[in-house]
Amino acid sequence: VSCNEGGAVLHGTLSSSGVGVSQNLGQTPGSAYSISVTATFIIDLSATRTSPAPALAVVTQGSLTFTVGFSGTMQAAPNGGVQPGMPNRTQISMSGSSLLTSTTIGTSTFRSQLSNFSLSVDGNDTLGRTTVSGGYTFASTAINGSVTVNVTTPIVYQPQGSQHPSSGAVTITSSGSPGKIVVTVISSVAGVKVDVYANAADLTATN
Which helix (H) or strand (E) segment is 131 a member of? Predict the structure, then answer.
């Protein structure tokens, strides 16, 4: 990739590897099927801008693995035989071990790393819900430390398409504190509660 658009220059590579498709198809109408597609994307990109001031330069390096899965039931094909019907479950996941970014604004440079990150979204039409899980660690020179976020109890949106989740919990820790923060969904109507623990191993909140 190399392009110049209005003083902004983008240069580098974005490539894929390990692209694969797997499927397990039922043989009769009403039998189950599953199809999944996986690919890993390798990123080595730089973006610069010299005007307007201050000058800006961003360099990103790392890799991401995406997986998309569909499942449902087989249906009779118009010309005989069977074919996959509309999926009733879609699962999307993204994961990676490291994504590095260096950002220079003027004469100041900040470096950050997103590590051990994963995100999974499971849309299940049969159960009428969408479930989100995952976690990551973000470290940066801008905060002189790191923050780790983990979905400790899957976040559930039920019914699907709800604006707010109905259940789930997220735990937040940082390198600069021995404690933790736990955000727990009470309900889609009541919202969330936030508990602060002086020590991550404590069973009782201090707030």
Answer: strand 129-140
